[in-house]
Amino acid sequence: MILFEELETQTTNMKVIKRDGRKLPFESEKIYVALEKASNEISPITPVQEAKLEVLVDKVVAEIFARFDKNIKIYEIQNIVEHVLLSANEYELAQKYINYRTNRDFARSQATDINFTIDKLINKDQTVVNENANKDSDVFNTQRDLTAGIVGKSIGLKMLPPHVANAHQKGDIHYHDLDYHPYTPMTNCCLIDFKGMLAKGFKIGNAEVVSPKSIQTATAQMSQIIANVASSQYGGCSANRVDELLAPYAKLNFDKHLADAREWVAPEKQEAYAYAKTKKDIYDAMQSLEYEINTLFTSNGQTPFTSLGFGLGEDWFAREIQKAILKIRIKGLGHEGRTAIFPKLIFTLKRGLNLEMGTPNYDIKQLALECATKRMYPDVLSYDKIVDLTGSFKVPMGCRSFLQGWKDENGQDVVDGRMNLGVVTLNLPRIALESKGDKDKFWSILGEKMDILRDALVYRIERVKEATPANAPILYQNGAFGGRLKKTDNVDELFKNRRATVSMGYIGLYEVATVFYGGQWENNPEAKEFTLEILRQMKGAAEAWSDEYDYHFSIYSTPSESLTDRFCRLDTEKYGIIEDITDKEYYTNSFHYDVRKNPTPFEKLDFEKDYPVYASGGFIHYCEYPMLQQNPKALEAVWDYAYDRVGYLGTNTPIDKCYECNFEGDFTPTERGFKCPNCGNTNPATVDVVKRTCGYLGNPQARPMVNGRHKEISNRVKHMNGSIGHLSNGDDIDNLAHDERSKFFAK
């Protein structure tokens, strides 16, 4: 360049005033990139054109420096660029540049244009109707919710701080759940305080509900609580340690049956009679809960995203509840025994209780393995690792969001009744691309984007605090969030002092390292250390913000169901097709291993285990298997291997079923639907196709909205989940199972 670097040095103190009011350092490189992009639309850029662009940029910078001293507005820069291009007779280049700027401004306006987005909904635009895999846009109440969501997003963007709204629209960050928040001051996900609600009673609508006197009534009350909580927030809800929660109510059934037996049954058979009747009651109650959850529809047009955690109960009643949950899921729904999508089942493994052969609940672990091979659920928690990572044991809120250990004023560890206030996700691959392989620049840009992320999260907190207890009585007044506030109380009483979490999400660590080390970096210690350092830096910032604001800022490995596509699409528009980064048309979810490679589950877990140490606010690991129903010991080998390494593990295995020929396995995705590979059946009424979409299962065959996209969806399931770690055939499974179990029990 002639003057480019020289003038850059002279303008280091100049600030650019962005449309959202931020003041950022002037960088002439950004002018060059914009002109380069415009030039590439005319023809592939050549060395001669590069030199010409450098001269044009020099003229722009010289004009800026001559006319402005300290600050310059972004539109003034654009006007100067256009003037320089026209003066140099670069009419075609000027037209491309002007069109680009106009289109950007037009896109910003469309984002807040309610009529424009509603038109997209009416015309079934995939970006509108397919954002959530478990919402069927053909259903009236879902259509109503999507329409309300469009209004909410448009208003929400206008409510956000301008620089946060701008960063979201550009794709620097993603402000999650804009269709609900900040338009309404809703919370995200939670662990419902079922224990307190069932013990103390609660009110829903006009009904005062008293403490249940049987397990059947307890589960009926749980389903009503779930429906109301899910309608008062926008995230998932979980029941923590449900077997231990419901055991006392099953004991009430036993006591009643024993009293009856003493009146009508021979003395030597009285206790056996009471146990048999109670066992049947437990099964019926848990079956009712399964059906009720799957038949519920909340006000937001979907089945509540519900998770049930269990596995730690040791008495007879808790064991029977655990077995009933698993047997009911194995049996399936309806006459055909279809796989239940909800609730998500989360089984806890614990050394000395159910992990090893010979422990008291090892038999239930075997039932859980059978269930996972046939229904994908349960996912498993490693008790000791969860305590190590999060400070105390608890199941996740929804699919993967974890609370951190927290004690009340009496020093008691509190888990149930706590919640998350929302998520904002950082586009890490964009920062790496913008840095062009310069690590110093990468860290500088990361700091700049983190400032925006902080402002977005703080805004979420401040907005949620504007709610009143009357806005969501089930949450604030009737105990779901642990407290029993009065109408005039401040909801912040249940958020402050780090009782609530707010989550800093991230995506694409694989792509970030690829920018600096190439696409095959997983076995490069320096590359992996770089990705870990990114999370360390984010965690350090989160801890500082927690100290400053007194809410728990956590690092969250985002379940990027549609975000893997959105960020990549936006970055492809900005940076073009880049090998191993944007050419895939998706970004890799959170910290997961590149899905195009084929490590064993053990290699995958060893690679991923280091990341949740820093991202303990939200994480899950997945491994993918062939059919496992004839070899559950292979899955047990992975569960055992994972116990001391990772806290939360999901199973992905083919469980599709054809009711015409009884084939079970993996259906073939086609453009028109999923096809049975055995008999060719494609009738949605006689096939059961279940795929995992991030943290939850979904039934794409039953969603008319995705017809024509089944092949695409099936291909994308793995990259959304980071679901790799293959066991390729029966011999491999047997050998690995024997080898890894031998290592595990030799410790």
TrEMBL record:
* Residues found modified as Glycine radical: 695
The answer to whether keyword Membrane applies is no
Say yes or no: keyword Nucleotide-binding present: yes
Instruction: Domain (ATP-cone): give its ranges.
Output: 14-108
- The entry's keywords: ATP-binding, Nucleotide-binding, Organic radical
One GO MF term on file is: ATP binding
Which is one Pfam family of this protein? Answer: ATP-cone
Q: Which GO terms describe its biological process?
A: 2'-deoxyribonucleotide biosynthetic process; DNA replication
The coiled-coil segments of this chain are none
Q: Which GO terms describe its cellular component?
A: anaerobic ribonucleoside-triphosphate reductase complex
Top-rank taxon, per record: Bacteria
What's the protein name?
A: Anaerobic ribonucleoside-triphosphate reductase
